[in-house]
# Entry
Amino acid sequence: MRALHRIAVPFVAAATLLAGCGESSPSSNASGTPATTDAAAPAASASAKPTAGSAELFEAAIADLATKPYAFLTKAKSGPQVKGSVDPTAGNIAQVADIPAAKLKASVTVVGKDYYAKLDGVQIPGAANKWIHFEPGKLQSLNKLLINTAQDPTGLTLIAKAIITAKKDGTKITGTFDATKVGDGVGGIGADSVAALGDKAKAIPFTATLDAQGKLTALSFTVPEHGEEKADTMTTTYSAVGTAVKIAKPTPVVEANEQIYAGLNG
# Structure
């Protein structure tokens, strides 16, 4: 499975259009580490208790991640890892995808309506060691910048809407979801994978790990073997829920030009 490897492709395509042979440059990760101030806000009171076997089990587990800041780390056996911090209420995010196979790091920062990306490992004329500012409306989809949305970068809400089966046992929820319903918003399951999987795409097995309060701390799912891709498991851990994050606009910055948009939208 290409897993997270596909997230590097749009950036590399854009860089290739402009740079040809890349030259390594010093890395500069996005800021967004959890702050040590501001305690977690009180959890919202639960409404009706989810019933066993229902998608509401998963929805209840991820409820806090729709309103409270958190950190996440996504890994797969094959492909890069993505680490980030999110403030879903403000719509701010800072994340870094480390892609050893391509010898680069792809950083993305969103502050309000301002979207920025930076490639370390490829020299782009006019943007060496600089962040590129994008207009979201000029991108065919935000996953071209490696995210689902700034409020939900890992696509939890998409998975919640695609749940087919769910069963809770202690601190685990196991079940399946229909990948044909998540589009390109969940890393590791792109349109190419869904097409190759056929009917298997409609029952992707997942395991959600919960804390003592029933809140999500980790989510893993396995994409079956398809085409030339072997079966692989992707796991995302969630931490520091409710801990304030400081995500600032990066500098220095240059504006994306039409060639960069063409590379990302191609």
User: Anything to note?
Assistant: Confidence is low (pLDDT under 50) at residues 1-8, 17-48. The radius of gyration is 19 Å. The helical segments are 9-19, 56-62, 156-161, 191-197, 258-265.
